[in-house]
Design goal:
two-stranded antiparallel ribbon, mainly alpha, 2 strands, elongated
């Protein structure tokens, strides 16, 4: 152990190394602070939307004496609360909405109207702790390792050092371990502080820490292997920087382009457009035929009497649902295509350790594509609850009272688990 601490002392007397590690620690601290701030803002926004929606619903309740009025005018908030470790790896939360207000109308248009962009398009992502780990920490390790052997050779000391008894265990291994340890000490405690503040569980914290160690270990071993070669210091630095650039940026970006080209999906805007066109066209279609098409999906409502007026809410909500049915295959194709792209990106990650570890960061933080897709699935399930809740009032003439307004299903954290 004394050899390790000796090398740590030598390392800390090198001004360039100290500056590099200090800068890394500062950036890690900044990223954790920004991540905690972003997560706090998302939680505050969720809380604010829920509170404001309660006020909005209270105002609607005053005049919504019919179920159709309530179903049409009332918005219902849904939300995707951030997991405790989301601060460290924001992932899809940076580009996908974490709050959506929906009505009992056609859902697909509402979902894709809130979609800023296809979620698989995110590459480096925001400046968060995962960004510091994946993109910046390897550069510091490169700075610390590129001349580990070549520097001694160029100074004329390598032969003497190699001739020392137990040089490998008393000199080179402690030097490697010291560099790995110093970089780890600049990152892991900062992460632990963020995890403690966010209330993360011990299991997830340990798993995330293990990934940090794995990532730093990968770059330590690779940098040490290159540094031990016969190349000079400039050559080692160039090789390490090129490999970092290739496997961290170029290869993932190239793979993403290939995956997107070979796995086509419809544009979310196209689903939105077709959904709205189907709804708008229904105004000009035969009303009885529209209701008969709807009853095929809900035969339990087929006993509803024929329409007696030019406009009835049951007809309106029937063709809203039929609008969703018309784009169901397109929406399924879209979701399946997104999942295929993500699965193929996972296969690419098997050959790119930094990318694999980045995906694992997002999985543990519950900010990956699967988490966002699960949120949309919960929205769809909740929307089905809303529709089926209103249908007896709309189709079977069940009386709608203020108590029924208050009993409308609500999206909750229990549903979001």
């Amino acid at each position: 152990m004394k050899h390790f601490w000796r090398e740590v002392g030598f390392l800390l007397r090198q001004r360039a190394s100290v500056w590099a590690v200090t800068l890394l620690a500062g950036l890690a601290l900044l990223s954790v602070g920004l991540g905690l701030h972003d997560v706090a803002k998302q939680k505050a926004a969720i809380s604010q939307v829920i509170d404001l929606q309660k006020q909005d619903s209270a105002a609607i309740k005053v005049f919504a004496t019919e179920a159709g009025d309530a179903a049409y005018y009332r918005f219902h908030p849904t939300w995707n609360p951030p997991a405790p470790l989301a601060f460290a790896a924001l992932g899809q939360r940076d580009i996908a909405p974490s709050i959506m207000r929906i009505r009992a109308l056609a859902l697909e248009g509402q979902i894709h109207e809130n979609e800023a962009q296809n979620p698989e398009l995110a590459l480096p992502g925001r400046f968060d702790f995962a960004f510091v780990l994946i993109y910046l920490a390897p550069l510091v390790l490169i700075v610390l390792f590129y001349d580990l052997w070549s520097g001694e050779r160029e100074a004329g000391r390598l032969a003497s050092l190699e001739a020392m008894p137990l040089a490998r265990s008393h000199l080179w291994f402690p030097r490697i371990l010291a560099r790995f340890g110093v970089v780890s000490a600049a990152l892991i405690p900062v992460f632990w502080i963020g995890a403690l503040i966010s209330g993360a569980g011990l299991r997830d914290t340990i798993a995330f820490t293990g990934l940090i160690v794995a990532l730093l270990g990968f770059w330590t071993l690779f940098a040490a292997w290159i540094a031990k070669g016969r190349g000079g210091s400039p050559t080692n630095a160039a090789v390490l920087a090129t490999v970092w650039f290739a496997i961290t940026l170029i290869a993932p970006a190239g793979a993403n382009l290939v995956i997107n080209a070979t796995t086509p999906i419809p544009d979310g805007a196209a689903i939105l457009r077709e959904n709205r066109e189907a709804v708008h066209d229904a105004w000009d279609l035969d009303r009885a035929a529209t209701l008969q098409r709807f009853y095929k999906f809900h035969p339990e409502l087929a006993s509803s009497p024929p329409m007696q007026r030019p406009f009835e809410w049951k007809w309106y909500f029937a063709f809203q649902h039929l609008g969703d049915q018309q784009v169901e295959s397109l929406s399924t194709f879209y979701r399946t295509g997104i999942a295929k792209r993500d699965a193929r990106a996972g296969l690419v990650a098997l050959a790119l350790p930094p990318l694999a570890i980045q995906r694992a960061f997002h999985r543990i933080a519950n900010t990956d594509l699967a988490a966002q897709s699960a949120y949309q699935d919960r929205i769809r399930a909740y929307h089905t609850q809303l529709r089926t809740y209103y249908y007896p009032y709309l189709f079977l003439a069940k009386p709608f009272t203020p108590a029924d307004f208050d009993a409308t299903p609500e999206f909750s954290d229990r549903l979001a688990e």
